[in-house]
Structure formats: C-alpha cells, structure tokens
Amino acid sequence: MRRLYFLALPVAFLAASCSAPQSREFYINAVNTEEQPIQAVIYVDDDVLLNQKNEPIRTPTNVKLTFEPDDDGLRRIKVSTRAVVVDADGKVTYGLREGEASPYIEEPRMVDPRDSKDQLFILRRNKDFVE
Amino acid sequence: MTELLQSGRFGRAFLTCCLLLGLASGCSSRRTVDIDSKPPGATIYVDGEKKGVTRDQISVDFSKVDRVLIQIVKHRYKPILQYWTIDEVPSAKRVFDLEVD
C-alpha cells in the first residue's frame, strides 16, 4: 500500500504535464523558388506577429509558439508567412494593408509541437501581383 | 558446454546478442531513401535543411521528431511539400513529378 503513494506523485505530475500548454521556439525563414531569401511577415493563427514596437516581425527569426492541450494531446498551430515589400530601413511599405496583394503566394501549415525547429517556407511568385 | 549453460552466462550472452540485433534492425530511427524528380535537378530540403539535389540518396533522422518535412524545389516549378512519419518513408525510390508554375 505504501508503494502506491510513491506512484501517485509521478502519475499526478504526468497528468499535469499532459494537460498544460507547452511553449517551444521555432526558426521561421522564407525563400522563393530560386532559393533566395525574401522579406516576409509571420502569421500565427491568422494574426500577424508584432514586436514590442507594434511592428510586424520579419523572417528570418525565432518565434516562440505556445501549444494548447486538446483531446489528442497538444493542438497544432497554423503558421504562415506573407511576403511584403520593405523600404531601405526595413519598414513594411506594401503587402500588409487590406486589398494589397503579396508578391508571393502564402503557404500556411499546421505546426506540431514535435516538428523540427527549422520551419522553411518556400513561396511561389504571385503572377497577379501589381504594386 | 554444460557448465556454460548451467552458469547462466550462455543465457545472458544470448539475450545480449538478441538485444543488439534488435537494435540494429528494427529500432533505428534513421531511414535512407532515394529521391528523384521529373525533371531532375531539384533541391531536396528535409526539415528546412538542404540535403541534396535530385536524384540523391538522403538520410532522414526521426530521433527528435515525429515527422519530417520534405520540400522539393526547382525554379519555374511549383514546390512540393510533404510530411513523412517514420512509417511513411518510401522503402524504394520516390519520384516527385514537378508541375510547371
């Protein structure tokens, strides 16, 4: 009977860790089909990621994602990159406002907490793009 | 021989051999696959890392991930993206048909 007390603690710890959100850092990068780096902002669950100055965070960068528990373990998170036009200072000048097309086609994906840290987005050119 | 069997050393040695054979054959988290494309000359990325150009043999490591992201890219063609779990790695050559973009 005494052994059961020893078992209760790890079982409780396991149950708590399975139902708790988990954070993990990913390296997000974007290139075109010529494998050249492109300037892109990052969307997580359809929301653009912003830095402390309220400016969109651009690739390449490390991003911490927090995975919420669901019935199957941890819920995958929708991540996408959207190519934008930036000026010499790195400020986004085109591609974020409503109605502005992106120079490349977005490619959303569902990131799993057990996926590789490196998330490379290879984007195709948007032939309809007119700045 | 009888002494060896009675001492239990034979049993331990046999079990060790079985364990080593098991590890070498079925428990490996690494898979090797030939990747080709039509047309050839496309870059192969595995989990964001450039691994070769079709046709190449690549090694895929599942020791830290449940699935790997395979991306095949060639300029003027639509890139291909696929997730593979360890059970989904093709046993023979895998040919990707690239579509003109």
Question: What this model shows, in words?
Answer:
The complex is a heterodimer of chains A (131) and B (101). The longest helix of chain A has 18 residues, at 2-19. The radius of gyration of chain A is 20 Å and the shape is elongated. In chain A, a hairpin with a 2-residue loop joins strand 2 (40-44) and strand 3 (47-48). Chain A has one helix spanning 2-19, and strands at 22-32, 40-44, 47-48, 61-67, 69-70, 73-74, 77-83, 85-86, 92-94, 109-111, 118-123. Chain A is mainly beta. Chain A is built from 1 helix and 11 strands; from the N terminus they run αβββββββββββ. The termini of chain A are far apart. In chain A, the strands form 4 sheets. A 4-stranded antiparallel β-sheet of chain A has the order 3-2-7-10, with no helix packed on it. In chain A, strands 4-1-11 form a 3-stranded mixed β-sheet, with no helix packed on it. Chain A has a two-stranded antiparallel ribbon with strand order 5-6. Helix content of chain A is 14%, strand content 38%. Chain A has one domain (21-123): Sandwich (Immunoglobulin-like), CATH 2.60.40. Chain B has 101 residues and is α+β, with helices and mostly antiparallel strands. Chain B is 23% helix and 41% strand. Chain B is built from 2 helices and 7 strands, in the order ααβββββββ. Chain B has helices at residues 2-7, 9-25; strands at residues 30-38, 43-46, 49-53, 56-61, 67-73, 80-85, 94-97. In chain B, strand 2 (43-46) and strand 3 (49-53) form a beta hairpin. The longest helix of chain B has 17 residues, at 9-25. Chain B is elongated and about 75 Å long. Classes of the chains: A mainly beta (131), B alpha+beta (101). At the A-B interface, strand 11 of A face strand 5 of B.
